[in-house]
Amino acid sequence: MFIYLNALKNLLRNKGRNILVGVILLIVMTATTVSLSVNSMSGAMIDNFTEGIGVPTTIRVDWDWARNHMTTTTIESPDGSIRSSSNFNAIEIPIELYVAFADSIYVQDFLSSAMAQYASDDIVPAISLYQPLTLEKLMAQFNAQTYEELVTMFQQMGSDEDYIESLIDAKPTTVGMIWGFSKASLMGDFRRGEKRLLEGRFFEDLNETVISSELAAKNNIKLGDIITVSGNSQTHDKETINLTVVGMFEDIMGEVQPQLGVAQEITPGIDDLIVSFDTLYNAGFHRIDPSTMTYFLTHPEVTAAFLSEMQGKGLHEMFMLDYDLDEYYAVVDPVRDMSGIAVTFGIVILITGAVILVFLSVINIRERKYEVGVLRAIGMKKHQLARGMIYESLTLVTLCTLIGLPLGVLLSRPIAGILLDTSSGLEMAREFSAGILSLLLAVAVILGIISSFIGILYITKYEPIRILQERT
Amino acid sequence: MNTLAINNVTYKYGKTTKSVLKNVTANFEKGVLYCIVGKSGAGKSTLLSLISGLDLCTSGAVLYENEDLSTMNRDEYRARNIGVIFQGYNLLTNCSAVENIVLSMNISNCRERCPQRSAKEHVYSLLEKLGIDKETANRKVLKLSGGEQQRVGIARALSNNPEIIIADEPTGNLDGETAKGIMDIFVKLAHEENKCVIIVTHSKDVAAYADQIMRIVNGKLEVQNK
Ligand SMILES: Nc1ncnc2c1ncn2[C@@H]1O[C@H](COP(=O)(O)OP(=O)(O)OP(=O)(O)O)[C@@H](O)[C@H]1O
Ligand SMILES: [Mg+2]
């Protein structure tokens, strides 16, 4: 106890020197706090930012791979000349696989849409766009002599035999398309204001549908009515599903023909039904085509891992991932750089401070040599002296930490504001964790040890008589 | 049993070739006031540093109650069993007289030995006996006169109530009257409180108080008859 009290008194007895040490400790503690806070703040900002946007990723054909895997076919034209053409047929990814890919730790969110043709005995189309086809009509349309020739032609357009079958196997009661969206907010034409919800709401549960007001008027359908629909394959779609009409939309654009040269998203038309992705996926229609499939990845660095995971699940090697990280890094990189500067600055201050402290304690011990000699001569034990010195520096360190830590926390926000450009879309994060606190306390303890270490080394090395003799 | 025994002690400083003390043998007992005299540079202070356990002899042994100082806990010995009045005072100069003495008492843990009074009061009364008032006692040692510092050193040595008191020129900076007062205290300590008091001095007047006088000549310790 008396050792501690004497240590406190010693701090006051040597004011000048201790104020100097205290100022250095204060600067080091404040700077370290600022540096760690800024670092962790920027880390949190990046995390929040990444979490907020995810990394929108889609699957597309790797055209480099495709060029190396073209099949060359020779076709004899009716005039006798032989043409050779190179072809590449992309295989289709089954919708089940798209869904399976989404079940991944790398996927934060999955936005999916799919479409199919539907038939119904109860509904007549408001605008009949659909014309039933037979094989004969189709061959006549395409000027094909044989079925095989027709298949080759379709293959050259990138469609398979299955597609031909879907055309000629269609039910005469086919009305239009049924669209499934995993999120109502994803529907571009509503977002763009081309369509507007007139009545009711968007789908929320399974087997709810939104239809156009024209289709409802034509068939005298009201909100809450149930309509029965099925897939449109004569041979495969025997099952029907019941859908409850929960909303009606107005098509502001109407059936405007897409302008030539203007890329346009294919969107639901007047005779089409809009349901949730799961509703459509569970309906089990024979032919459902995937539309937009976007995976929002948890982090930009997981794209490679995600791709190989998908390949493990059966994604063909002709596909690759399509994502744009430039924007991400444009925002994140400056933050990282600045946080790196802050950390470097903190480390430099810490090392400089430690060196000065060592230097000061060397000077300090010279001053204190005599004191050590006297105290040892009147019987103070080495460990008591050492404890006294540790108490002294720990008290000083504690004091400076108590001031420096809150000061650093206070300063870190404005400093981070200067260092990190928050206009770049990054939300400023408040981050001061138990981890930082313990790191700071460790720094404080180390500083305390550094500033008393030399003295202790000295005490344990010299006998009091030598110190006293040296003085005279 | 001798309180303190010096057995055939030889001492040589570090690298020097000449021995300061050569085969010195002496016994010191409680209740006796000893004076050690000798020319300057004879080795008086050296002998005291061996007795106080601050230094160890080159050969031979210093025994405290039959225990060899070289093997015992000398910190404990210095803190509790012996009070040393140094020739150069050896006080903490940026502390007050009271602080110096209280610190020394704390080190020797003498609270157990004088529990009836608070440490400070004990110090004040001790200093008063040595002619230092409260105001002076609370001044920094740096701001005390040589004689005052010397008396603070004496008070510190006595504060722990040790069995052995050794003093290196304790009256060197004092006027005749004050010196006399202090010597009376030493005599009282030896004769009434049964302490073993060893005083190094040049002064014949001081030596006159001694029960036994020893002289160091050529590294040898000779007992002189009064
Ligand atoms: N640290 C040292 N290293 C080498 N020689 C020393 C050391 N200290 C003292 N001496 C020498 O040892 C001898 C004895 O010294 P000591 O201090 O014991 O003398 P003293 O009898 O106390 O003298 P004084 O009456 O002047 O105080 C002297 O010759 C001195 O020069
Ligand atoms: Mg001397």
How would you characterize the overall build of this protein?
The complex is a heterodimer of chains A (472) and B (226). By secondary structure, chain A is an alpha+beta fold. Chain A has helices at residues 2-13, 15-53, 63-68, 95-102, 135-142, 147-156, 161-168, 188-191, 213-219, 277-283, 303-312, 326-377, 382-419, 434-461, 464-471; strands at residues 55-61, 71-76, 82-87, 107-119, 174-181, 195-200, 208-212, 226-231, 240-251, 273-276, 289-297, 319-323. Chain A folds into two domains: 2-52 and 330-471, no CATH class; 95-127 and 172-315, no CATH class. The longest helix of chain A is centred in the C-terminal third of the chain and has 52 residues, at 326-377. Chain A is elongated and about 120 Å long. Chain B has 226 residues and is an alpha/beta fold. Chain B is built from eight helices and ten strands. The longest helix of chain B is centred in the C-terminal third of the chain and has 16 residues, at 176-191. Chain B is globular, with a radius of gyration of 17 Å. The A-B interface holds A 2, 6, 9, 13-14, 371, 373-382, 384, 463-465, 468, 471-472 and B 49, 52, 54-55, 75-80, 84, 86, 88, 90-92, 94-95, 99, 103-104, 106-108, 156. Residues 44-45, 87, 168 of chain B line the site of magnesium ion.
Quick synopsis:
The complex is a heterodimer of chains A (472) and B (226). Chain A has 472 residues and is α+β, with helices and mostly antiparallel strands.
Feature tags:
heterodimer; A: 472 residues; alpha+beta; 2 domains; six-stranded mixed barrel; two-stranded antiparallel ribbon; 15 helices; B: 226 residues; alpha/beta; Rossmann fold; six-stranded mixed sheet; 8 helices; 34% helix; binds adenosine-5'-triphosphate; binds magnesium ion
Assembly type of the chains comes to heterodimer
For the secondary structure, the number of strands of chain A is 12
Largest sheet of chain B: 6 strands, mixed
Binned, the helix content of chain B reads: 25-40%
Major sheet description of chain A:
6 strands, mixed, barrel
Q: Which parts of chain A are unreliable, with pLDDT below 50 for 5 consecutive residues or more?
A: none
Bound molecules: adenosine-5'-triphosphate, magnesium ion
* Succession of helices and strands of chain A: HHEHEEHEHHHEHEEHEEEHEHEHHHH
